[in-house]
Amino acid sequence: MSRRPPPNDVLLLIDIQTGFDHPIFWGSRRSNQSFETNITKLLRGFREAARSPIAGTRPSIIHVYHSSFNPSSPLHASSDGINFQPYATPAQGEVVISKSVNSAFIDTNLEEMLRVLEVQRLFVAGLTTDHCVSTSVRMAANLGVTDHLDKETGELVKGRVILIEDATATWERGDFDSETVHRVQVASLKGEFCEVTTTDEVLKMVYGTYAST
How far apart are the C-alpha atoms of 200 and 198, rounded to whole Å? Predict the structure, then answer.
């Protein structure tokens, strides 16, 4: 016996690029030292779920990368820093989107893509918590990209935007250390714009949806 999965889940990974390894450009200390491990676990879990033998929808992975207008930025197109981190390199068939501002929805086709997929659960992770991740989460909620009309009933189905708090990270800002900035940003998003959970909880959700029972 197996469970039929709900309409598509999407893992949205934002700006996981080698430019963030720069020793001083972003700051001296990053929050969440488990970031790399958790991104690796998420990608492995979603890729395994995408190979599920269960008939129906499959989870999707969308990679967003930042192409900065600032020529001195490690994320400028002329820099090797624009490349994806080795542990977050897109696999064949996974969607890749380029952006040049904080939001993954501005001047991209991300909104259209999510609506076509009729996503019910949008899982968000990446860099940085207080800039591109926060902005993209807020816009996802405001745009209602996880909401869609049921084809049979015509009723509005409300989806979920889910921030994976231990798969995001940031740097210190002014007098505030990186962990404080991270926690405050997550707290400001929770409830108003998204749900907040952890990598392990997301993997339980994904495996519970797509694994045979």
Answer: 6
Which is it for the CA torsion 188, 190, 192, 193, positive or negative?
Answer: positive
Structure tokens at 20: 């963030």
Cα–Cα dist 87/83, whole Å: 11
What is the predicted pLDDT for the residue at 139? 98
For 149, phi then psi, to 5°, come to -85, 130
Run of H or E including 115 = helix 110-117
User: What would the two tokens of residue 101 be?
Assistant: 């501002």
Tokens of 43: 């990608």
Give pTM, 2 decimals.
0.93
| pLDDT at residue 18 is higher than 50 | yes
- How far is the C-alpha of 190 from the C-alpha of 37, rounded, in Å? 23
pLDDT the model gives residue 56: 60
